[in-house]
Give the backbone structure.
Amino acid sequence: MAGLATTMNSSMTSAPSMSIDRLFPALLECFGIILCGYFAGRINIITSTQAKGLGNFVSTFALPALLFKNMVVLDFTHVNWNFLLSILVAKVAVFIIVCILTLLVASPENRFSKAGLFPIFATQSNDFALGYPIVEALYIDTYPEYLQYIYLVAPVSLMLLNPIGFIFCEIQKWKENTTHQQSKLKTIGLVLFQVFKNPIVFMVIVGICGNFILKQKIPVFMGEFLDGLSSSFSGSALFYLGLTMVGQIKKLKKNSFVAIILLITAKLLVLPLISREMVELLDNGNTEANYTSLSNYAFLYGVFPTAPSVAIFASQYNMEMEIVTPGMVINTFVSAPIMYMSAWLLTIPSMHAKLLLSALQSVSFDISIVTLFFLIWSLAVMLLSKKFKQMPHLFTVNLLLAQCMVSVGMIMWYFITKQTYRLGQVLVFIVLYSSLYSTYIWTVGTFCLVRIPALIVGILLITGHPNTRNDCDSAFFYGNAQVISTAVVLSCSILIAGLSLMCLSRNRQQNTYQILERNSVSSNVVEEPMLKDQSENVVTVNNEQPGTELVVEKEQCRTLCTSENCMLVQEEQLLQNADPQLGRHVLLCLLLIIGLFANVSSCLWWLFNHEPGRLYVELQFFCVIFNFGQGFISFGIFGLDKHLIILPCKKRLEFLWHGRDIAAQNDSAIREEMKMTCQQFVQYHKNQCAKNADVRVDLTS
């Protein structure tokens, strides 16, 4: 942080390039109208049919009028084409990354539909309805020409990127259609028709032609008409967006959480960072003030939420609606605080480095104290439930221990930096960063969890030179050498974690196919012996030969195992075998990867920018919250055990709330016959059914 203190002083005292005063009212206006539309649809003031009519008005009349009007008066001589190229390159890069990763990870049944819709989700922004009011509120006084880029960026990406996604969706339809009557030429024609019938693309082309024909001036007889239609777009589009959100969260499934988290990360974190870097790389010929302002504007543009048209595409193809539509809703509301925080930091006229350092240290200290309590709770749950004896949970316990040491190390660092005891600072640094590196490489395994962090910290101690400032941040205690080592560790961890998740997905798909093939073969082989078995058992019973009772018991047990009663055995066996909770571990790994990506972006940003700027402060705050708040994620996933915490607490609360009498009534409400049946089955038939089930599995395999 000492280096940060020197480089941030100049960048934080420059004049702001936007006005923050109108940002909060603009956000309140936009999201207030969205909520009004949502509640209007929720309480059925406006039906789905009426909402469809409003959507047709917005897309057929209001939006085309707005686009035509602004494209005609646009002055192309003042357009920064390098900036447009930078945004386009960033979108293409994110589109390709999401598309390739989807093709590698997704299952073969719906691989192409996901590879078509997911990249569109990650790159297409809600530019006109939500983005334009935000940009107008921020830049109308300082850089009014930035408003025209909204009308140029959207159609270019729609014409270049969306057709690729539509082609993948058409390939998916072609695979699902067994007749294969549609030719490739017809498929390409349908894709091009769908692109050019989009009002954004069509009216931009017409508007550009009108720009040269009318010489950037709208005739009087057309001006009032276009003003009336275009002025109705913003409110009606936002209201319609709220209407489209009704009922979308219900489509959300448990297996969709992972995809939605990754898509939102790609849209709200990866795209803004890449957009900013592309502007700094390709558009460096401007003055320093304009150069910084454009890069910040590119970052804000990337934070705009996903356009609702992506959900329309998903419904048209009837593909991935359970992921795209809830993801669009969540993405829209998550983007609001990110936009506000980004714009707020960019408009701070001055921020002294010592105040910034103090704020970061205080946030780290406060989060570490709270996180330590939740981590101790999560460790206690792991130990009491005896899950630490299983293989996946063994790694999780190691991660929890490392996170505990990170919190303890940060608490110690907060106090040791207030003193001049250099040896104490070095010792606390060893504890803190050995633990922090252990959390970074958690996906590698238990062997590397201790040895590699100790090796890296040892190399830093031998080759590096600690900072002599007492108020130095732990992230910069050994200067650039520490930042480089952290970046290398993070990059390797992200790569290994990604490959591990990819291999896990492939193995699960192969196991599913093998089980399906085995079941299809065994169903034909076992059916005839089972019928023969049943006839022999019937003959044995009718002839009343010795062993009749045993045969009858065997037949009854088989009947029970094919009925719903055997679900009791299956549930009990699952509890006894202890669920490995692979889904929870995958979710934990994905959330940690998001934090790793933010940390490696912070390291690279620091290494390649002499003046990181205010957006770096936002990223640094996010990294601090992630590094010392990982325990919240672990607690949310593993700290609330169902059988150990939730169900006992629920029963206890019901007992305290309703009293003993109602609890006794609820218990007696269960039918005695059902209780007797369950007791008889567990006492007399469970073990025999389990043995017969094992025998049948051996025969079929």
Q: What stands out?
A: The mean pLDDT is 75. The two ends are 62 Å apart (CA to CA). The chain is about 80% helix and 0% strand.
